[in-house]
Amino acid sequence: MQNPEISPEMRLFSPEGERLYLTAEERRRFLDASALESPSDRMFCHVLHYTGCRPSEALAITSRRVMINDSAIVIHSLKKHKTDQQGRLKQAQFRSVPVPPSLIEHLDLVFGLRSQLRRDLVIDAPLWSMSRPTAYRLVKRVMDRAGIVGAQATGKGLRHGFGVAMVTANPPVPLHVISQLMGHSDSKTTEIYLQVLSEERHSLVMNAWG
Where is the Tyr recombinase domain (predicted)? Predict the structure, then answer.
């Protein structure tokens, strides 16, 4: 039974049983298929893949939020509650997501991040100027090129794929850390990824029986 504390969007399977997350193989194909896009659009796809952020959150990333020396990207958590239980306005919330140094290097090549730092430029404009619909079309186009079809072929499917990758890593990333990386307001939301562990255990047992 679906946990009533989990919002409708936080599901790994549709009511019809369709998978809503990308597998490791599909995520690899998504990255490979992005190579045919422009350098800027390719980097957008890579940021989604390596940070697990929402497309709308990626569109808000500025040069200032790419931590070159720390190999991390600071994400503005857009889905966090803006008011507390008393109705008071809360400050903007951010999360830092470690990424491969190679991603930082490619972002630098495309957007000239180090050059901006050397010239003491403080750039608060987003790295990508595309609209949300354009970003969603970009993701869909790359999914189609990668041969990824079905309910999982979305930006949300890629985000869920990030969560699945974290929980199935060896060793697995602790749930509270995954919750922080993905910007979940409640760590209970992150527990949906434990469903995949059950699937993995089933596969391991079946493999043991040949």
Answer: 17-207
Domain ranges of the chain: 24-208
Residue 3 confidence class, pLDDT cut points 50, 70, 90? very low
Residue 126 DSSP one-character state: B
DSSP 48-114: HHHH---HHHHTT-BGGGEETTTTEEEEE-TTS-SB-TT-PBPPP-EEEEE--HHHHHHHHHHH-HH
Q: What's the rounded Cα separation, in Å, for the pair 139 and 44? A: 9
Return the CATH number of the domain spanning residue range 24-208.
1.10.443.10
Give the DSSP H/E element, type plus range, for residue 137: helix 132-145
- For 153-181, what is the mean pLDDT? 94
Residue 116: CB atoms within 10 Å = 16
Q: What is the pTM of this model?
A: 0.86
